[in-house]
Amino acid sequence: MKYSVIIPVYNRPDEVNELLESLTLQTCKDFEVVVVEDGSSIPCQEVVEKYSDRLDIHYYNKPNSGPGQTRNYGAERSHGEYLIILDSDCILPPGYFEAVEKELQSSPADAFGGPDRAHASFTDIQKAINYSMTSFFTTGGIRGGKKKMDKFYPRSFNMGVRRSVYQTLGGFSKMRFGEDIDFSIRIFKAGYRCRLFPSAWVYHKRRTDLKKFFKQVHNSGIARINLYKKYPESLKLVHLLPALFTLGTVLLLICAIFCPYALLPLLAYALLVCIDSTIQNGNIRIGLYSIAAAYIQLIGYGTGFWRAWWNRCIYQKGEFEAFKKNFYK
Q: Which residues form the Glycosyltransferase 2-like domain (predicted)?
């Protein structure tokens, strides 16, 4: 068996069903599926059992410990040469594993990852959020794809790693935010071959509304400072852009009290995002939603970054002590 698909789940049976259905449609079948329930109050065992005759699938239920430790739990019980780490809110196109196989045959890799896209079934809000997370005009330029401002770090929604590498590095750490980037940093620091597989993309739902999206990106901003505290060299100029954008937005809003023309840069950016998203999605409503999604992404991340910087770098608080209320079960 070449691949083991590891799926941590927390209260998302409907999304798991969509992901498992997409796995049954794969053109390449040399994989097993390991679903690990992370102490959910709404379990997905019945959903998993529906696929027992169509997939080589295994289900485990464990006390809550967060996604990183849950992935480790599944990895320990898997058998494939490569581990494919997926979030439960993903859907795979039929050629996903075929694309991975072609990439590995063309050039070996110890770890890899792929980009993400919006599925036609996603709501307009989800498509707008997808735009903001993948666009070059937001932070999409540093997350991976053909247009990048930093080297590619695989993310846990679509990550592959050779089993021997996973075991050597000890899998994911106990970080509650940014544990996937932490793992990617350790992969690079150990000298392993890690690269982007552009054709091995997934449909990624992420959050279903803007409030949940803000919380997600706010925690990502916190994670960047936590990573900086562990790996000071990992903080690059591009990681400061959302924080600087947030600071600039606040200053422009204050200036606008005395001079309304100070709002022009903010309006120009909104127009740019709206036009680009409308062209990409062929829908002006998604373009308008993308304005809100882009500002929420940048400011949510920026405020998380500044908050973490204040708590961890100025007050010198520990990771868990500084953000107790943000840690989810």
A: 4-168
